[in-house]
Specification:
Layout: H1 5-36, E1 45-48, E2 52-59, H2 71-89, H3 92-95, H4 98-118, E3 140-148, E4 152-153, H5 159-180
Helix pairs in contact: 1-4, 2-4, 4-5
Length: 197
């Protein structure tokens, strides 16, 4: 039943993971944008030169910069995705799988973190190019830049992107684990081990 402690625990774990994920994402974005300002206005912070640096960036697309200029569409998709996740969790069997609940919590936290930015809630205004100066920013704040010179220059990303990828990986693992777990009746004794009648 929906009111049992077991089922309530599933909702609590999901909410705790999602809230922690979105909080870490939004706090980290606020900190780095306060520290470095808008993109191109301050030198990046080199953590592990030349592989890892912190620099601000605004992304009007989706995960890792894909689909530039489709921010409104991605915002709508985000709302639908959250509704779908809540619908999945409404099923008690989903809430009983702790790994799946954590995965969905991470994905929800990632979606909410980037949706917050896409809705313009940070109250940023474009500083460039000239024709956009002063317009409200409806773009995701990114700040982690990974690069292996001559090998890969990964699009700048944020913690919300990390939660989405990690959550998706956890979902795959949870699904594989479910497929390999013994089903009821699989542990029955083989015919030759059963007592003779």
């Amino acid at each position: 039943m929906a009111g049992t402690p077991h089922n309530r625990t599933g909702w609590l774990v999901f909410a705790a993971v999602a809230l922690a994920a979105v909080a870490c994402d939004l706090v980290s974005k606020a900190w780095i944008f306060d520290r470095l300002g808008m993109p191109g206005t301050a030198a990046p912070i080199d953590l592990l030169p030349p592989v890892l640096r912190l620099q601000t960036n605004l992304n009007e697309g989706a995960l890792f910069g894909m689909g530039q200029g489709w921010g409104a569409m991605f915002a709508g998709i985000s709302v639908l995705a959250i509704a779908g996740i809540l619908g999945m969790l409404a099923r008690g069997t989903m809430r009983a799988d702790r790994g799946l609940v954590v995965a969905l919590g991470l994905i929800t936290g990632g979606i909410l973190g980037n949706l917050y930015d896409r809705l313009g809630l940070p109250r940023l205004a474009w500083h460039a190019p000239a024709e956009r100066v002063g317009e409200p920013v409806m773009a995701v704040r990114d700040w982690i830049h990974f690069e292996l010179p001559g090998v890969i220059d990964w699009p700048i990303f944020n913690l919300a992107d990390c939660w989405l990828v990690i959550g998706a990986a956890f979902m795959v693992l949870a699904t594989l684990r479910g497929e390999t777990e013994p089903q009821p009746g699989d542990d029955a004794a083989p015919p030759d081990a059963r007592p003779a009648r």
